[in-house]
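agent: user wants the full assembly modeled, not chains individually. Plan: 1) parse entity lines 2) check alphabet per entity 3) run joint structure prediction 4) return tokens. Steps 1-2 passed, two entities, 858 residues total. Proceeding.
--- entities ---
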Amino acid sequence: MQYTYRGGIRLGSHKKTRGKRIEAMPAPQTVTVPILHAEGREVEVFVSVGDTVAVGQPLGNAGGGLWCPVCAGVSGRVAEIRTGEDPLSGAYTGIVIENDGLNTLHDAVIPFDKPLQDATGEELLTVIRNAGIPSMVTESLPVYAVIESAIGRVDRIIVNCTECEPYLTSTYRLLMEDPAAVINGVKILLKVIGVRQAYLAVDDRCLDALNKLEKLLDGSKMIFGRAVEAKYPMEERTLLCAITGRELPLGKSAADMGYVVFRAETCAAVFRAFAQGMPYVSRIITVAGNCIAAPKNLSVPLGTSVQEVIDYCGGFRKSPGCIVLGSPMTGRAVTDTNHIITKDTAAVLALSHVPAEEDTSVCIRCGRCAQVCPMHLMPFAIVRAAERDNWTRVEKLGARLCLECGDCSYICPGRVDVSAKVSLAKEKIAAMPMESQEETVMPESEDKEEVSREEE
Amino acid sequence: MKKNKKKKSTVTVESVAAEEASLPREETLSEEMAPVTDEAAEVAATPTAEEAILPSEEEAVPEEIAEEEEEPIGETEVAAEPRIFPAPFVRTSERIRSLMMDVVIALLPAFLWGVYTFGTRVLTVAVVSVASCVLFEAILQLIRRRPVAIFDLSAVVTGLLLTMGFSSAVPIWMPVAGAFISIVVIKGLFGGLGRNLINPALAARVVLLMWPNALHTFTAPGERLSGIGLTQVESVTTPLDALHNGVFPGVTLSDLILGRTAGCIGEIFPVLLLAGGVYLLVRRVISWQIPVAYIGTVACLTFMFPQIEGANLNYMLCQLFSGGLILGAVYMATDPVTSPTTSTGRLIYGVGCGVLTVVFRYYGLFAEGMPFAILVMNLLTLLIDRFVIPTPFGGKIAHERS
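--- prediction returned ---
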């Protein structure tokens, strides 16, 4: 039996860096540690220009009301505090640190020395809290907030170890090189949340990684490996559906179904916070694409500039048609390589292929986008309704549910940017006031008008 | 499949609950949990034996990667400057051109059989019709100041479908007029590819029915015409005409199936047409719902209500394999632009086409009902797509509002 869901696409893999070990990139001369401005939350900065900081020292709090420290990944002097805008993570306050190369550790970076069974849940949660680990699943929430909200409400943990997008290999490498960290992280999470079952969902293109995990698990009755079909997107909703066979009802969260979902990277970061006392200061990224001279998997300190990363990988082999930050399906194309690596930068890609300058895109209503939509929507119909300003129909077609995964654009033989257009439509209706009673009577007449306009 | 999964997961929930009740939580936890200390960190840090032989892993390229071709996003390959455009940055290699190419490939065998049966004049008709379609398309796009997109091959497919519906003795002005009607009037004036409401090739065919004698002069199979001009040919009765007149066609069933009858150029060999349909299905150019619903409905209706009493099965088979039913069901009704996009919608549409085809064949003025049936359903497509909306992930939208 295969764990899968209806819709989605098994994307081509292009994973040429699969066999490349994760290299720890030496920290560059300066890093700009980003304190992300989560929506509606104020950031606090604990350091000022001229201060000397050590590795693991909290620089600020990104959580607003919640506690989510952002820590230094290098030791050195704070040269500047500036604000910036990241294409993936949005606005941030950047703490520019001049690296002194000494890597002095902060006093607080000490391993957790109690055996796990003796530690209380609160103790463990405090460690996770102070490590400032962001949740990779629920946007912009620190992971401890996710854990807190899950305690008492869920009875299973799902760990998303899948990597179904082309080019990306960082999760796979993490599982291959350090499966123990992931598993120990899961064990800590099990203990903290107080549940006794966890599933490690690995996609079926990484069965070797699953084998490794299962060897380590050795018939554990608490943690199970699950091979899910390598379909994209594989995020909270679709993964839950793949594992449980049930679709998460609209308006419900995973916790309502008794599950909480973490990413493999999060688990490894939790383990690191215990084993080394090291807060979340670096992430693993894949640097790839046919224009990168030496594609690699890198562990880089947060705040390293994209240019440094590209230089470390030998620069460009040929001039790239686009430089992508983040995943190939949902990332952003940039022209400026002075952006920094944030928690959301899963990859840096330099690709040669670009769309034709002239817009020759055309929708032939083939319905492929509807076939692959993981939310079972009709993307092409949403686009057409939006083009005609028929927002009632956009709403009715469920544009709000769109995951913005990009499958519809991927599959479109007419090369329409379906996903981008649906996202725009989604933003528009989100900005509109929820329909009042009078407006819901309107559609009838509007619809008729639409039909006649269509037939013209 | 899905139900099985459900069952399984509920079973485990229960068993876990039972386990939980019987065992104190802390105890089981400590059994399972490895103490997290520095040691554990070190263990994790030292590479295992498997990892030591990593280089070989690097060489072994997984099969899937080896097979893959680069996925071009667009036509241009190299840009001087990095450009900004929306995600995703990888695209499928399938283009409209490749879809259209597949349709051409699928049509070719039946078309070549037409050339073999009716002579080289068929080639002339095809060249004139395809060339004029492409030419009209290019001119129209130039006038409308749009990028000339004749290489998407959609005009070629229209021209070829147009040819398939002519007889070999068609006056040569007809393909040109047909091309004008389909490309300029039906497609161009509605906004070009993807915007037309009805199938261009079929619409042209129906308009040209204003000259029924010119359109319906059929030569006998094996009477091969050549050249452009027309010598006077004697029209023969097609199997469909015979059925329309209430008698069985004077050919055997095997002649009917294996293309040894009089009829339109591309309609006489149902087996080749169906084989092309299978090719399109395998290549996922068309979906099964429309042809199956269409042909199935016609089969049911003609079997249950034959116009010639006493030979239901024979009558049904004659109806299925004479005229343009197969061509229409596989290649014309499935035109994505003019057919519904949801599976349910496609089934409704297919059944509608089937019912109307039988009605038009039984009670219509003309022997053939397929073009009219599909055109009517083309117009209803808008309506079908308006009301058949698939249930989104997690249930009806209305739930979200409440």
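agent: reporting back. Confidence is low (pLDDT under 50) at residues 436-456 of chain A. The first helix of chain A runs from residue 121 to 130.
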